[in-house]
Amino acid sequence: MEKQNRVIRPLAGYLRPFLWKCIAGPFFKLLEAILELYMPLRLAGVIDKVLELRDAGEPYSEYVLREGAILVGIVALGLCSAILCQYWASQVSQGYGTKLRSVLYRKMQSLSHRELDAFGTPSLVNRLTADVNALQNAVAMLIRLVIRAPFLCIGGIIMAFTLNAQLALVILIAVPLLVLAMVLVTRKSVPLHTETQKKNDRLAVILRENLSGVRVIRAFTRTEEQRERYGNAADESMHAAIRANRVGILLNPLTQLIMNLAIVLILAVSGVRFPKYGDISSGDLIALINYVNQILAALVVVSNLVVLYAKAYASGKRVCEVLHTEPELRSGEVTEGVSGAPAVCFRSVSFSYHEKNVLENISFTVERGMTVGIIGGTGSGKSTLTHLISRLYDCTAGEVEVDGVNVRAYTLEALRKKIAVVPQEVQLFSGTIRENIVLGNPQATQEELERAAKIAQADAFIREKENGYQGTVARGGRNFSGGQRQRLAIARAIASGSEILIFDDATSALDYATDAAVRKGLREELNDVTLFMISQRVSAVRHADLILVLDDGHLAGAGRHEALYASCEAYREICRSQNVKGKEGSDV
Predict the structure, then answer these.
(1) What is the distance between the alpha carbons of residues 131 and 138, in angstroms, rounded to a whole number?
(2) How confident is the model at residue 325 (pLDDT cuts 50, 70, 90)?
(3) pLDDT tens string 283-320
(4) How is residue 443 annotated by DSSP?
(5) Please, what's the b/e burial string for 457-492 (b: 16 or more CB within 10 A of its CB; e: otherwise)?
(6) Contact of 189 with 249, CB cutoff 8 Å
(7) Three-class DSSP category at 40
(8) Measured between alpha carbons, how far is 283 from 291 in angstroms, rounded to an integer?
């Protein structure tokens, strides 16, 4: 029960802005149900009265017209009530979904990279879309049917007993049978539908892999193999869906069978007309049959609601799992650093991920305006080190300081305004080139924009594009080459005006001449900016004021190129592998 409350209470809280509609909607749906229950009773009276007038040889057309108008009015009132309820249910469910998505998205944005990695991007996307959709549907059904269906079922039974208690006992026999059928079908079909969804998920994964890796598949002539793989997955999904539907489609025939048997039994019992059953009029008999139909139809709706809310509850647990996650990155209160303090300082910093040390006991100091090169083998912790500066992760031991202040003390906004990052995998956004470059500084002037592009060696190819800086950027920057995307990302970092720039292998797609031109522009134009450059190329870091050599999470050496070449074996091996010697101008 406590677990259910942990799911229901926080999610129900987002319905508060729509509280009056949540009350008014079911009220009008209840009004519709009352009118629906009243209709057979009214109709029974009309039928009996018409038969009585006919048998007496009296005219009844005027009576029929008057009663017909009343019945039409009742139907119209019920229709208006249903429309109002449906309208409010749509408003509430859409508003609820929008609110919940916004809250969930903000929560995701507050999580650290460690927490985001633990959930996984596909899972978070599904929670934000499919799971919230399931909750939206549950809210809509809550307003439209949760009160109406049980009310029709219970009210129908009461009305049936009001008409004829003996014949109404047939309903009490039919209802448990129908409930049993619904329970059996539901218990069997839900796991099968879950299995079908898993097969569909696998099908989607294969499709995504094939579409994103189509060039690799064609290059290695694996098209037929992948077609067969996709076909097998599609067949598995189809067979799983067939198995689920075979069970699901039984509910309707079983419902119809039980309903019709109940009606036949009522007709048979009423036809015998033994004194112990009592006589029943034609109108009451028709009304009783209508109530049977209403009861059984309501029970079918209830069974569908049970399945829907079971799925919604599972989705709610997944959503609450994110909402209940306490972000490990808590914003501080400091907005400014200490004047004259070093730009970055690591003091005995260690970092572990999944109980494995990625960095261990790292210490160094970087003064303002220095260029720092970070080099090391794959998996040595180069990127992780810079993630600690911008506080994408928090170190597990030691302290990281920026401008003399511990990064934990800064507000996240103030800290990240000081830092601009060009990641390994460049992400451009659909829009214009200008919008992408000024992403970190929307107030940047055209002059600042062009200066950043020139330093990044991007100005020339931008001007060659149609509309220049107002040229279109396709989704993900697909209309640019890898090197062009990297230069646009470098320009974006420069245009941000940040005090610290971090280039995480940001020139790997550039040729040597362009790479050298970018580095020259950075040295000459941004001498007051602290620059961290992660690279596999010794040529990219050899002129740095400080080179950090990482080896399996340890700081193997720190210094300038010549000193490291002489004293650090790990750095010397990297240089030898790239035919670079220790003295300036001795590259082979």
Answers:
(1) 11
(2) confident
(3) 666 777 777 777 777 777 776 777 677 777 777 888 88
(4) T
(5) bbbebbeebeeebebebeeebeebeebbbbbbbbbb
(6) no
(7) helix
(8) 12
Cα–Cα–Cα angle for 572, 577, 583, rounded to 5 degrees: 50
Q: Could you tell me how many residues make up the chain?
A: 588
Burial 152-182 (b: 16+ CB within 10 A, else e): bbebbbebbbebbeebbebbeebbeebeebb
> CA–CA separation, 263 vs 257, rounded Å?
10
Q: Which tokens belong to 302?
A: 């209830």
Q: Can you read off the two tokens belonging to residue 46?
A: 């009309």
Report helix, strand and coil shares of the chain as percent, to nearest 5: 65, 10, 25
In the block, tokens 């450059």 appear at 533
Q: Give the pLDDT confidence of 357-416 residue by residue, as tens digits.
A: 888 889 999 999 899 999 988 878 888 899 899 888 888 889 999 999 999 999 888 888
Q: What are phi and psi of 168, to 5 degrees?
A: -65, -20
Pick the closest to residue 479 from 443, 514, 428 (CA basis). Answer: 428
If you ran DSSP here, which 8-state letter would residue 410 be given?
Answer: B
Phi and psi torsions of 277, nearest 5°: -90, -25
Three-state SS letters, 496-523: CCCCEEEEECCCCCCCHHHHHHHHHHHH
- Sign of the alpha-carbon torsion through 116, 119, 122, 126: negative
- Beta strand segments in 437-514, E: 472-473, 500-504
Alpha-carbon span 337 to 407, nearest angstrom:
10
Radius of gyration of the chain (CA): 36
Residue 322 has pLDDT above 60, yes or no: yes
Position 26, amino acid: P
CA-CA distance, 470 to 9, in Å (whole number)? 48
State the pLDDT at residue 271: 59
Residue indicated by tokens 């303002």: 368
Q: From CA 522, how far away is CA 420, in angstroms rounded?
A: 14
pLDDT for res 269: 67
What per-residue confidence (pLDDT) applies to 272? 52
d(CA 197, CA 438): 42
Partners of 406 in beta bridges: 401
